[in-house]
Amino acid sequence: MMAAPLLLAACASSGPVTQLDKDTYMLTTSSRWHGNDGVAILGLQQADTYCKNLGGRMRVVGSERSEGVVGFLPPKALITFKCDKVS
């Protein structure tokens, strides 16, 4: 039962987190196996993990999604986020 989520996660891809400004970042995720919402969730989880590793809290400042074309182009999500300092 645990193999299925691992296989699905392996089919997802994301680009590296790109720093746009001092505390603003962007990343893109895509997956043939996760629908449009699933791809967005994967991106948010990656952004959250990235900020936690920096000792901050993730805050979304923008996002775009494309639904893709079944069997040809996977859905994609582009997320712009800030890593706010935790007090």
TrEMBL record:
It comes from the Bacteria. This is Lipoprotein. It comes from Herbaspirillum chlorophenolicum. The lineage of its organism: Bacteria, Pseudomonadati, Pseudomonadota, Betaproteobacteria, Burkholderiales.
